[in-house]
Design brief:
Elements (H helix, E strand, L loop, with lengths): L1 H18 L4 H19 L5 H32 L10 H15 L7 H8 L2 H8 L4 H10 L5 H18 L6 H18 L5 H25 L4 H4 L2 H4 L1 H15 L7 H13 L3 H26 L21 H12 L4 H6 L2
């Protein structure tokens, strides 16, 4: 417990250092603290796959951090500025985009992410998919005026396409959530140049919905689609809530997840980027297919075998308060969208 507390505090410390720093060296330090804190959490189970995942994660993050340090040093060499917001040299900007894309798992630097989520526990996967992506996203927001819009748009559309396309034939839920994360990153990055505030709103709502799904899966210990099929016979209320949360993550209208997609498409249309808005909206249909498949498995299908015992309507599994709050927020926040949008 003491070690877990130290690692959790280090994660919070690393994130705080990065998001509150103005100097590139401090931002880099925060990212390194984050990486070193999450490694023991990934390899906690001592399973060969977990050890492999932590090794891969370390190598990828170390490479990305080196690139980030190199881009900031080259910018300081050319301009004499170590300030994060003063990244102006074009080569440094391209190097920084590459480094942050590698840290986030954007296409074409996405190969490590599904493998590492598959090798981690559900709660560590949640940390990797949400909190660990927050500091790099903030760095992108701070440097957004200097970045190349064409490069970011290409990477965003590629991420949305690949996240939906490759997620179609997965049976492991953690891998499906990894490709879902890649697809959502595409939505965040495409609007980064034009409306950084929208990127943050998208990230917050994505993190909220993903947390609700991972907490639900953790409470029922579900890792595969075949296990998900038996959820309805054990705890039907949670299965129904999971279905709604998955549809919210897909971005269907009455649910919370519709808000960021609606606003992003609206903003892209205002910027006269109708083709880009249409393309990314159509690509989200690929993701919708596998979300619907997950929802179908959770609520409609029963396991393909004869069950001799009575259905377990009253099980020992209790839904904790945090999961209930997360599910409620991730499905019912749409009426509060004017309030969300006025938050500075």
């Amino acid at each position: 417990p003491q070690a877990k507390l130290i690692f959790s505090m280090s994660l919070l410390l690393g994130t705080t250092i990065t998001i509150s720093s103005n100097h590139w060296m401090m931002a880099w330090t925060g990212l390194e603290v984050n990486t070193l804190a999450i490694l023991p959490l990934i390899s906690k189970s001592h399973h060969p796959r977990a050890i492999e995942a932590s090794t891969k994660y370390f190598l990828v993050q170390a490479t990305a951090s080196t690139l980030l340090l190199f881009s900031s040093a080259s910018n300081a060499w050319f301009t004499g500025q170590w300030d994060i917001t003063q990244l102006t040299h074009p080569v440094s900007c391209t190097l920084l985009t590459t480094a942050i894309s590698m840290k986030l798992g954007l296409v074409p630097f996405h190969f490590w992410f599904p493998e590492i989520l598959q090798g981690s526990s559900l709660m560590t996967s949640l940390l990797l998919a949400t909190i660990m992506k927050f500091p790099p996203t903030i760095l992108l927001l701070l440097t957004s005026p200097s970045l190349n819009p064409t490069l970011l748009s290409m990477m965003a559309i590629a991420s949305a396409a690949l996240g939906g396309w490759v997620g179609l034939n997965q049976t492991q839920i953690r891998k499906i959530m990894a490709f879902s994360s890649i697809s959502h990153l595409g939505w965040m990055i495409i609007i980064l140049i034009y409306s950084p505030k929208l990127t943050l709103i998208t990230f917050y709502i994505y993190s909220l919905t993903t947390a609700a799904i991972f907490f639900t899966l953790n409470s029922t210990n579900t890792l595969k689609l075949s296990t998900l099929m038996s959820m309805w016979s054990k705890i039907p209320t949670l299965a129904a809530a999971l279905m709604l949360t998955l549809l919210s993550l897909a971005g269907l209208p009455p649910l919370t997840g519709f808000l960021p997609k609606w606003l992003i498409i609206q903003e892209l249309t205002k910027q006269e980027l109708t083709t880009m808005a249409t393309t990314i909206a159509l690509l989200s249909l690929l993701g919708l297919f596998f979300y619907l498949r997950l929802a179908y498995c959770a609520t409609i299908t029963l396991p393909p075998n004869s069950v001799n015992h009575m259905k377990q309507w009253h099980t020992n599994k209790s839904i904790d308060m945090l999961t209930s709050i997360l599910i409620t927020l991730s499905t019912m926040l749409l009426p509060l969208s004017p309030t969300i949008l006025t938050i500075p």
